[in-house]
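Minutes, project check-in

Agenda point 3 was the complex the collaborators sent over. CS summarized: two entities, 1280 residues total, and the question is how they sit relative to each other. Sequences were read into the notes so everyone works from the same version.
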Amino acid sequence: MLGLPATNLLALKAAAGDEIPGAVTAIPEAARDENLAWAGLILLLPALSAILCGLYAALKVKNRLPGWTTVIALAGSFVVVCFLYAQHEPGQPTVIHLFDWINFFWGDGAFQSVRANFALYVDDLSIFWMLFVTGLGTCIAFYATEYMDEDRGKGYSRFFGAMSIFLLAMCSLVLGDNLVMLYLGWEGVGLASYLLISYYYTRQSAIDAGKKAFIMNRIGDLGLAIGIWLIWYNFGTLEYDALFQALNAYLPVADAGKLPGTEIGQPQLGWSAYLIPWFLMVGAFGKSAQFPLMTWLPDAMEGPTPVSALIHAATMVTAGIYLIARTYPIFWLEMEAGGYALATVGWVGGFTALLAATIALKQYDMKRVLAYSTLSQLGYMFMGLGVVQTFGACFHVYTHAFFKALLFLCSGAIMHGLAGQLDVRKIAGLRLAKGWKIVTWCMFIGGLWLAAFPFTAGFFSKDEILAQAFVQKGPGFRALGWIGIITAGLTAYYTFRVWFRVFGGRTLHIEPGPEHHGDPSSFHPHPPGWRIKAVLIVLTIGCFAAISTGYWGIGHWIKGMVTHSSAAWGLPLHWHEGDIPFFGGDPHFTMYFVSGTFGLIGLAIAAYFHLFNRKAAERLDERFKQHFITNLLPRTLEKKWYLDEIYNALVRIPTYLSAKFLYLFDRIVIDGILVGGIARIPVLVARIFQPLQSGALQGYATTMAGGVALIAVWMIWVFLQKGGG
Amino acid sequence: MLAGFLIAIPLLAAILIGIAPSRMARWLGLLGGLATLGWGIVFASMYPFWSEIPQEGANLAGYWPVNDSWAIIPLVGLELQLGVNSVSLLLVLLTCLFAPLVVLASFTAITERVKEFYIWLMIMNASVIGVFIARDIITFYTAFEVSLIPAFFLVAIYGGPDRREASFKFFIYTLVGSIVMLAGFVYLVMSFADSVGGWLPSTNGGVNVWDIDALTTYAREFLTPGEQAWVLLALMLGFAVKVPLWPLHTWLPLAHNQAPTAGSVNFAAVILKLGAYGVFRFVIPMVPEAVVEFAPYIAGLAIIGIIYTSLVCWAQTDMKKLIAYSSIAHMGFCMIGLFALNPIGAQGGILYMITHGLSSGALFLCIGMMYERHHVKEIERIGGLMKSMPVWSFFVVLFTFVSVGLPGLAGFVSEFLCLLGTFVGSTESNGGYPGVLGPWFGIIAGVGLSLGAIYMLYLVGKVVFGEEKIPEHDHSHDTHPLPRDLNFREIITLVPIAIICFFIGLYPTPILEAIEPAAEHMLSAYPEIVEAASKTASAEAMPTTPEAFRMTLTD
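CS then shared the predicted structure for the full assembly.
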C-alpha cells in the first residue's frame, strides 16, 4: 500500500507465477452482455402464464387450459435455461440487464447510488439451480394437471396461477443480479407458498398453516433484510458483482499482492460487516425451515401434494442454501477472522436434522413423515455449508430434489387414489392392489435414495457432507459428523417404516380417507392415470441418473459448477483434502462404510418391526405406554417436542396479549386521559361563551359556503384586474 | 393560470352540482372528478422538469409554472402564488386519481343529502390540491385549514353512529395543531420581513416575504438554533397531528371508522399526506439545524408508532379500524424515511406518501363495497367471502399484499428505501449526509414488517378465507340492489389503482427519477451542516493557536 517492501515482494512473487500458500484467485468480474436479453424469457414465460391463468379464472374456464398453459410456459423456461447454459462459459459470470427497477444516484462517489435493477446474474451456481428448478417445475406441473383434475372450473386456474407465480419468483430469486431482486423472489415464493397452502380455503387448518408459513417466513425475512441493509452499510452496493469486487480487496487474493492473514496489504472489514452472515443466516433458516423457524413446514402439507413436492421439498426450501452459497465469500471472511457464523450454520443444520428425524419416527401421516424428512435433509445441507463443503451441500440439494419430489408425488398418488387417506396405520399391502405397481416401486426407489442406501445418489451426496465434518477443523465438528451418522440411521428407519407399512403385508387393507362418502366396504382405490405415472418414471430415471460422486457422473458436473461460482470463490484451492484419519482412512472413503452400516441397521429394524413382525412393534408400543416415564419419549416425539405449544406460549400469546393491552392503553390512557384531559380545559373555559354557539350544522355550513363564495369572488375579481394570465 | 385551474375545476363542479337537480348530482360529481383528473394529467404532462435537475438559480427545485401569481392584498405585498414541483405534482395526481374513484364508490352508498355530499367532495379536492400547489404561505395555510371543513361535514353528516364525536374530535384536534403551526408561520414571516426591511417588495428590495422558498432560504441561513428549535416544534405539532405521529393519532381511528367510504378513502389517500407534505416542504428544508437535533426523537416517536399501532391492529375487531390503525404505522415508515435525512430515505419517504395512499385508499374502497352488501364491519361476524365474492377477494388479497410491502408491488419500493435510508445512519455510508438515525432505528422499525404481515393476514384469513359466514340482513330496504360480487362500476373503481400498484412496484424508475431533484433540494442544507460540524470538531480536536491549546488544558 505504502510501498512497503513485503508488499512489493509479494507482488513480484505473484507476477512470477509462484504459488503463495493459502492465497486464492480473485473473484472474476462479471461480463455485461446486452445480447442475451432473451434470457429474460425465463422470467417472462411464467409471468405470462400467471397472467393468462388470471384471465382464465376471470372467464371461468372449465377445461384443462390453465394446466397446459403453465406446463408449456415452464417447459419453455426450462428450454431457455438450457440455451443459456449452452452458451455459458464456465467460471465467467455474466450480467444481463433487462430493465431498471430501483436505480438512482446523487453523486459519483461510493455510497451515492442505490441500484437494484431487473438484471440477471448468470453464473454456474444460478444456472445449476435454474436447471433443476425449472425442470422439476415442469414435471410437477404436468403431474398436477391430472392431480388437480377434480378442481377444474373451481380452483384449477388459481392453482396454476399460483404455480406460475412461484416459478417466476423462484427464477428471480436465483437469477437476480442483486440482493433486492433476491428479496423480491424470496417474498414472492413466500406469497405463492401462502396462496397454495391455503388453497383449500374453507379448511381452517389450511388457512392457519398458510398464515403461519408466511408470518414465520416474514420473521426470517427481517433477518435477510437487515443483512441486505448491512451489506449496503458496509459496501455501498446491493449488486453481487460490485459486492464481490469490493470483497476481493479483503480476500487473500494472490495476484493483488496481498499476504494472507497479515496486516500488510490486506485490509480488514469493519466489525459490522462480520454481522452480515448472522443476519443472512436468519433469513435462510426461515425459508429453509431450520430450527427455530421450522414449524411452518410440516403444517405446509395442508396444500395440494404437487405443491408439497415442488415448493416445500424440492425447490423453495433450498433457497436458504442458495442464499448462503451465493454470499459465501462473506461467510468465509467472517470465519477467517475467527468468527463462528459458519459453525453455527453447521450446528443448526445438524441439530435440525436430528430433531426432525426423531419427530418423523412417531408420525402417522405419510406426508408429515416426508415433511420432517425434508427438514432433516435440509439440515444436512446446512451442515454441509457449515463444514465448508458447499459442493456437498449443492449436490445433496440436487439429489434430494429428485428423490423427495418422487416420494411426495408417490404419496400424492396414494392420497389421490385413496380419497385422502394418508395414515400409515390405515393402509397395508397396497402393492397387491391393481394398477399400483409403478407407485409401489417408485416409492421404494425414492425410499432407498432418502435412506441413503449404499450406492444410491442420496448415499454419495450425504457422505460428501458427513466426511467433510471429520476433515474440517471447527468447533465440535466431529461430534456434528456423528450426529449426522446417527440421523442417517434414523432416516433409514422412518422411511422404510412408512414403506413397509403401506405397501408391505400379506393382504390388502385400506380404510378410505375423509373424501370418500358412502360405505367404506365398497371402496376401491383408484389407480393413478398415465400422466402421474409418466412423471413418476421420469423422476425415477432422474434419481438413477444422479448416482455419482464428485469424481464422475452428474456429481462431477455439479462439482465443476459449484467450484466455478461464489460458493467456492475466495476459498483456497485443495480445501477439501484432509489428513485427519477416520477409522484409519481418508474420511471421504471410510465414511461410505460407516454411514452405510448405520443406514442398513435402521433399515433392518424397520423391516423387523414393520414388515416381518408387526406384532412385536405393537407389543413394544404397549410396553412403552404402560408407564408414564417410558411413555414420555414416544409421546413427546408424537407431539413434535411440543415446539408449537412452546412457541405459542412464549411468542404468540404474549404478543397477542400485548396487542390487546396496547389497544386498551390507547383508548384509556392516550385517548381518554391525555387527549380527553387536555380537551377538557377549553371546554371549561368555553362554558362562559356557550350562548354564542348555536351548535346547528346548517349554521356552520352556511357560514362556510359564504366564506368560500367570498374567496371565489375575490379570486375572480383579482384575476380580472390582472387581465388574465 | 394553469395551476389555478386545478383548484377552479372542482370548485366549478361544486357550483354546478349546487344548481343542478339532485338526481344529477352523482353524474356531475363523476364528471367533476374526471375533469379534475383530466386536467391533472394534462397539467402533469406539461411539467418540464420530470427528470432533469433544473438549472441552478433559474428555478428553485423545479417549481413550475413560475408566474402563476395574483396580488391579493397589495398593502402587505401578499400574492397568491401557485406552482408545483415534481413531488407536489405527484401528490396532486394522487388526489386527482381518487377524485373520480371516490365518486364512483359512493354511487349507491349515498342516498340522502346527495347534493351536499358531492359538493363537499369537490371542495375537499380543491382544498387539498390547493395545499399541494401553494407557493406562498397564506395560500398553503388557508387551503390546509379549509380542507378540514369538507372532511368535517363528510364525517358529521354521512358517518356512522358515532359521527358527531368523531367529526368534532377530528376537527378540534387538527385545528389546535394548526393554530400552533400558524404561530410558527407568523413568527417566520415577521422575522423575515423585519430582516429584509418591510413587507412590500417596493420597500424591501423586491423580496416577496410570503414566498415559501424565499422564506426557506431565509430561515435556514439566519435563524439561530434556538429559534429554529421553536419553529420546528410549532410546525411539527401541526403536521404531526395530520400525519399522524404517535401519540397524536387518536383522532384518526375514530374519524376513519365513522366516515363514509368516500371520506375514509380521502382521509387515507390524501388528508394524511398533508402532514407528510408539510414536513417535506417546510420542516426539513427550513430549520435544518433543529431537524438534525430533533430527528432522532421524531423518528423515535414514529418507530414507537409503527410497533405500537401494528400490535394494536392485531387487537382490532373492526375492519375499518384495523386499516385506520395500519395507516398510522405506515405513515410512521414515511416519517422515518424523511427524517433519515439522506437521499435514500427521502426518496422512500416521498414515494411512501403515494404508495400508502394507493394501498390504504384501495382497501377502504374494498371494505366499503363489502359493507354496502352485508352491512357489517366486524371481523368476527363475516367470513369466507372468497366463495361468494371471488373478484372482490382477489382485489382485497392484492391490496393486502401491497400494504404489507410485497416486492413487485408498490408498497415495497418505498418501504425498502425508507428502511434502508434509516438504517444507513452514519455519515460515511451516507455520501456526506448527516447520519442521525442508524441501524437500531432500522432494525426496530423493520420489526414492523413482520407485524404488518400478522395483522393483515389475520384480516384476510378471517374475512376472505374460511368457512362461509354471511350475516342475515334485510335487503328489502336497499334502494340500489347490488349483485353478489362486484359490479362493473366497482371493478373499474379498483382496476386503475391495481394497475398503478403494479406499475410502481415493477418500474418505479420514472417516479424515482422525478422525485430525485426534489429530494435533493429538500436536503440541500444538510451536507453543509456535516461539513461545518466536522470542521468545528477538528478545530476542537486540534487547537491551532497556543491560546486555544492552553484553554483546552484549563478546561
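Noted in discussion: Residues 1-20, 256-264 of chain A have pLDDT under 50 and may be disordered.
Follow-up: revisit at the next meeting once the mutant set is ready.
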